[in-house]
Design a protein that fits this description.
By secondary structure, the chain is mainly α. It contains 11 helices and no strands. The longest helix is centred in the C-terminal third of the chain and has 42 residues.
Length: 265
């Protein structure tokens, strides 16, 4: 199993992206941004359509650019209008998905290509995907860890962070950029439909048994790593789709931590 090149690439992808999603997921769940990540992931459908329209065999770059455009549009509309954030995200999600579906239908894209991005295909991950994932993991780690205190304060109380001298607007845009890039690359693992679970489930599992934010970050990363790699290996053994298997493995970890939380002491 581990001697096969595609399985090695799949495990490396899970090793890089699952913990990264779990780390960002701590702040996503604390800031109630799960719907935001869902909006960005579904906007990728329009990016995929643009990539196919341009004749690209790998639409990763258009997918990232469209995702960033939608993410920044959410931030801009939130600042410039009186609309509620969930209203803005629902508007952009439905609009980008509609554009993607119309473009794909006009292009007559094959169902196989669309299915690969909707539900993920970690076994088809290529060397370029691994280089991008590795670079992103290093970039986010180098950018987030030195600013962990600022990011924590921003997550807990945005007004307090602003008063304390934190560059709130810039940090928000940097966080949204990192989140969008991570979601776009993780679509290869779980697909558009399931990618948000890689952000939410490990963080929720860690929250069940952690007593501080630092504990939650460490346990969330560990949970993401176990769910990503364990789900990939399990999918190979059971001959099941990788994306859903990774999600179910992560949910099994969540249920385990929930049982530990409520276990009579």
């Amino acid at each position: 199993m581990l001697t096969e090149a595609y399985m090695q690439r799949a495990l490396v992808a899970a090793l890089l992206l699952a913990p990264l999603c779990a780390f960002l997921g701590v702040f996503v769940t604390a800031r109630r941004m799960a719907f935001f990540s869902d909006t960005v992931s579904h906007a990728a459908l329009a990016g995929i359509a643009v990539g196919f329209w341009l004749g690209l065999s790998d639409p990763t770059i258009p997918m990232i650019l469209v995702g960033l455009a939608v993410a920044f549009a959410v931030m801009w509309l939130k600042q410039k209008t009186d609309l509620l954030t969930d209203t803005i995200m629902a508007l952009l999600l439905s609009g980008s998905v509609s554009i993607g579906i119309i473009m794909l239908s006009l292009l007559k894209a094959s169902h196989g290509d669309i299915h690969r991005f909707l539900f993920g295909d970690i076994l088809a991950v290529g060397p370029l995907d691994l280089w991008l994932a590795g670079g992103l993991a290093l970039l986010v780690g180098a950018g987030a860890l030195p600013r962990l205190s600022d990011l924590t304060l921003l997550t807990a109380q945005e007004e307090m962070a602003s008063v304390s001298g934190v560059a709130v607007v810039r940090l928000n845009y940097l966080f949204v950029t990192a989140l969008t890039l991570t979601v776009a690359l993780s679509i290869r693992l779980l697909g558009i439909v399931l990618v948000t679970s890689l952000l939410v489930v490990p963080s929720a599992a860690a929250r069940n048994v952690s007593r501080s934010l630092r504990q939650q970050i460490v346990l969330s990363v560990a949970s993401g790593l176990a769910g990503g790699c364990g789900g990939t290996l399990l999918a190979y053994q059971l001959d099941t789709p990788c994306g859903p298997t990774i999600v179910l493995a992560s949910i099994a970890i969540f249920l385990t931590t929930l049982g530990i939380k409520h276990w009579p002491s």
